[in-house]
Backbone:
């Protein structure tokens, strides 16, 4: 019995593989937020998923296996989350520079516009994330407009475009 308890405790304290990511890793938080945005409108398009993978590959220098492990860790963390605060607080600890937080928001907008459209719920999710990251409404709108211009996307049907 004592051997089983020791073996169990050993598995808890044993070093993890390098491909695993800690729950408070800012990369996991970022990937989780990406999934929150992609899933917000109930339609995670192929274009959004491809844009997401391309951005992750460009942003993080990981092996294909490491990238897949990161994506799985972020997806799992996102599916267990009840709000965005956990992820945004992890990111705020690591992204002390405001420009980095603004850039992160721009990446989220690029994912939204990957399929050529955005929904009100996607707007709301990014507004909430921006607020928690401390990104101003002005910078949020500018990032959205820049992402829309990069994809030649249009505003949400029936809504007026916000002015900066």
Residues:
């Amino acid at each position: 019995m004592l051997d089983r308890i020791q073996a169990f405790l050993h598995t808890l304290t044993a070093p993890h593989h390098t491909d695993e990511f800690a729950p408070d890793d800012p990369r996991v938080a970022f990937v989780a937020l990406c999934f929150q945005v992609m899933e917000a409108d109930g339609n995670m398009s192929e274009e959004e998923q491809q844009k997401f993978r391309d951005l992750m590959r460009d942003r993080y220098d990981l092996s294909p296996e490491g990238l897949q492990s990161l994506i799985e860790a972020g997806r799992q963390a996102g599916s267990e989350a009840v709000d965005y605060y956990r992820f945004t607080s992890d990111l705020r600890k690591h992204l002390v520079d405001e420009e980095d937080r603004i850039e992160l928001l721009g990446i989220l907008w690029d994912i939204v516009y990957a399929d050529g459209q955005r929904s009100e719920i996607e707007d709301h999710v990014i507004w909430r994330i921006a607020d928690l990251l401390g990104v101003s409404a002005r910078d949020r709108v500018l990032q959205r407009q820049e992402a829309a211009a990069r994809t030649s996307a249009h505003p949400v049907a029936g809504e007026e475009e916000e002015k900066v």
